[in-house]
Amino acid sequence: MSKSPSVFGRALKVTTDFAAGIAVFGVLLVVLLQVASRILGYPVSWTEEATRYLFVWMIFLGLAAGFRTVETARVTVLIALMPRFIRRLSLPIYVVSSVIFFILTGWTGYRLVQQQLMMSETAATLAVPMWLIGTIMPLSSILGVLAIVESLRTRRDLIELPEFSQGMPELLLAQSATPNSEKQP
Q1: pLDDT tens digits, residue range 12-38?
Q2: What is the widest separation between alpha-carbon atoms in the chain?
Q3: What are residue 89's DSSP bridge partners?
Q4: What gap in Å lies between CA 22 and CA 53, rounded to an integer?
Q5: Residue 91's closest CA among 38, 163, 21?
Q6: Where are the alpha helices (DSSP H) in the chain?
Q7: Which of 36, 57, 60, 133 has the fewest CB atoms within 10 Å around its CB?
Q8: CA-based nearest residue to 147, from 83, 87, 93, 102
């Protein structure tokens, strides 16, 4: 029962997916350049560092994209075994814990960027200020919270834990596949 994405949702998708795609493409190009230059005997010194920083950007942007599409890691088995009133709290638990995670990540990233700006830190082999690399932490935190809002609007059914009797096919399959030791032949 997913709703179609709004203008906000499409802008968020472009921001997260497109930017992460650019980072992936950048990693691919830089690694290919690194391999080719080493094969030719003229290794380029900045490729390892560029790969590392592009990879960091790719991971943080992918994190926000994962929350937008509700493709994040969740432990539903434990919640399914809890009493019904706790299972009903699965959505607020998911939202609150995710937002707290992004707030902590954003605050830590913000403090890191402040420190990098104050120290005028630059990358070792690239002529890039480190605050530019560190900016992805608070940026992805903002995108992550916005992604949670969008996923609540468009994919709420994927976030909510289905009732045990209505869903949880993995648990039902696991229970039916295990032999019942109490049965006597």
Answers
A1: 888 888 898 999 999 999 999 999 999
A2: 77
A3: none
A4: 13
A5: 163
A6: 7-13, 19-39, 47-68, 76-80, 84-87, 90-119, 130-134, 136-154, 156-159, 169-177
A7: 36
A8: 102
Q: Give Cβ neighbours of residue 98 (< 8 Å, ≥ 6 apart).
A: 67, 72, 144, 148
Nearest to 62 by CA among 121, 22, 16, 106: 16
State the amino acid at position 7 in one-letter form: V
In this structure, the number of other CB atoms found within 10 A of the CB of residue 164 comes to: 13
Q: Which residues of 165-184 are buried (b: 16+ CB within 10 A; e: fewer)?
A: eeebeeeeeeeeeeeeeeee
Cβ atoms of 141 and 100 closer than 8 Å: no
pTM exceeds 0.70, yes or no: yes
Residue 43: DSSP 8-state: -
Tokens of 126: 């690239």
Return d(Cα 87, Cα 185) in angstroms, integer.
Answer: 36
* Residue pLDDT, tens place only, 105-119: 999 999 999 999 999
Q: What are the residues whose beta carbons fall under 8 Å from the beta carbon of 145, sequence distance 6 or more?
A: 99, 102, 103
Instruction: Of 141, 135, 132, 128, give the one whose Cα is nearest residue 111.
Output: 135
Please state, in angstroms and rounded to a whole number, the distance separating the CA atoms of residues 32 and 29.
Answer: 5
